[in-house]
């Protein structure tokens, strides 16, 4: 087996070429993973722990690789190929663009007030 780095540091996408069964299940939600590394990294999603802090703006992250990518955004060298069709703001990841469009430009309101249904 290929040794994996610390799951909180991100990375770890190197896997053996032979397919593996997803035999490592999360005790909290049941989601299964091929190896312990990915299971440990997933477990962070169930906690509020954010041990990695941006030295520029103090924003905190669960994973070191996500914090490092964020720090690069302060340096202005981040490639942002995903542009919003409404306002032109650009993002480095498609999921960030999708979140922006839903939160800023969408009239969709998936949650209703339980008292007045508004």
Automatic annotation (TrEMBL):
InterPro entries: Znf_C2H2_sf, Znf_C2H2_type. GO terms for biological process: positive regulation of DNA-templated transcription. It comes from bird metagenome. GO terms for molecular function: DNA-binding transcription factor activity, RNA polymerase II-specific; RNA polymerase II transcription regulatory region sequence-specific DNA binding; zinc ion binding. Residues 24-51, 52-79, 82-110 form the C2H2-type domain. SMART domains: ZnF_C2H2 (SM00355). Keywords: DNA-binding, Metal-binding, Repeat, Transcription, Transcription regulation, Zinc, Zinc-finger. The keyword Cell cycle does not apply. The keyword Zinc applies. This is Myc-associated zinc finger protein. One of its GO terms (cellular component) is nucleus. Residues 1-23 are annotated as: Disordered.
């Amino acid at each position: 087996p290929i040794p994996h780095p610390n799951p909180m540091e991100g990375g770890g996408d190197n896997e053996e070429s032979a397919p593996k069964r997803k035999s490592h299940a999360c005790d909290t939600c049941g989601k299964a993973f091929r190896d312990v590394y990915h299971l440990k990294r997933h477990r962070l999603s169930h906690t509020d722990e954010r041990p990695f802090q941006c030295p520029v703006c103090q924003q905190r992250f669960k994973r070191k690789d996500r914090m490092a990518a964020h720090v690069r955004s302060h340096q202005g060298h981040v490639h942002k190929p995903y542009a919003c069709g409404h306002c032109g703001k650009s993002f480095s990841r498609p999921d960030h663009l999708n979140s922006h469009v839903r939160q800023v430009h969408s009239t969709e309101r998936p949650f209703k007030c339980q008292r007045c249904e508004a």
